[in-house]
Amino acid sequence: MKVKKAIVAVAGAGTRLLPATKSMPKEMLPLIDKPIIQILVEELVEAGIRDIILVTKWDKKPLEDHFDHSAALLNDLKKSGKDELFEKVDRISKMANFIYVRQIPKYGNGMPILSAASLVKNEPFVYCYGDDIVKSKISFTKRMVEEFEKNGKPILGAQEVPRNEVDRYGIAKLREGTNEIEDVIEKPSISKAPSRLALFGRMILNQGIVDALRNTEPGKDGEVWVTDAIKNYIDAGNICHIQKVLDGKWMTTGDPLNYLKAILAYAEDRLELREYLREYLKNLA
User: Fold this and answer.
1) Which residues partner with 216 through β-bridges?
2) How far separated are the first and last CA of the chain, in Å rounded?
3) Domains of the chain
4) Could you tell me the CA-to-CA distances from 126 to 49, 70, 111, 118, 213 in Å, in that order?
5) pLDDT (tens digit per residue) in 213-241
6) What is the Cβ-side half-sphere exposure of residue 24, based on CA atoms within 13 angstroms?
7) For 112, which of 27, 55, 183, 256 could close a Cys bridge (C-beta 3.0–4.6 Å)?
8) Residue 208: CA atoms inside 13 Å, Cβ hemisphere, count?
């Protein structure tokens, strides 16, 4: 089956970025002049995703407004002759069909999937964390979709992290000599981690994993983890693959240091900023 839908988890509180996120969703914080969530959506659209389901909560209205049609703003830009800005703003609401679902009030990164499960019944879908971005030459999601359409198996984005960071992520153990996942552990201790291969917020999942998630008990910290459901799915004899980022890098933006790193990485791509920024940082050092 073709992958045409995505579920994006954007109900997180963003507490590590307070007070900036007191009235602004963390996914709306800018990387230069685009919010994080728009960069993610553009990656999905490049992969052929047409229906984007954003799983939200009560304080995410600025995010919804961003993808809405902005008639007054567009009219002002048109009158002012700012045609380039007009085009940039006008295309935002036209990129995809945006669907908003409120998250079921339980904790864990498996809950956004359960909250939107009826909208992806019996079909594969992309699952994303709203504050994870993959900076690459070709849409990472597009590469995942192409691979899925070859083998039909769930695929999880993965990237190696330093050993001292494995306790922050779901960590995968691969079957020797393959890209098949043998086991996955949510936030293992450093001493018990089976590898340094961290799973991040890009996955292509199916109805089998949704069903496994429904039967998965709360795990670490009393939360419902998608990695626990994936483990149960694999333990039942099913196959999941990993896909590494080959031409770029996965970056999380959920804390001040990594958010700043992402800003600098995207600034490097902007010719009008690059040299000034390099000179500024050189002088700062």
Assistant:
1) none
2) 52
3) 5-284 (3.90.550.10)
4) 9, 28, 15, 15, 15
5) 999 988 888 889 999 999 999 999 999 99
6) 14
7) 55
8) 15
Q: What are phi and psi of 141, to 5 degrees?
A: -65, -35
Which H or E run contains 107? none
pTM of the entire predicted model: 0.93
What's the one-letter identity of residue 63?
L
Length of the chain as a residue count? 285
C-alpha–C-alpha distance, residues 251 and 258, integer Å: 7
CA–CA–CA angle 117, 54, 15 (5° rounding)? 115
The amino acid that residue 66 corresponds to is H
Dihedral sign, Cα of residue 157, residue 161, residue 165, residue 171: positive
Which three-class secondary structure state does DSSP give residue 119?
Answer: helix
Report DSSP letters for 58-94, one per residue.
Answer: TT-HHHHHHTS--HHHHHHHHHTT-HHHHHHHHHHTT
Cβ within 8 Å of residue 143, ≥6 positions away: 243, 246
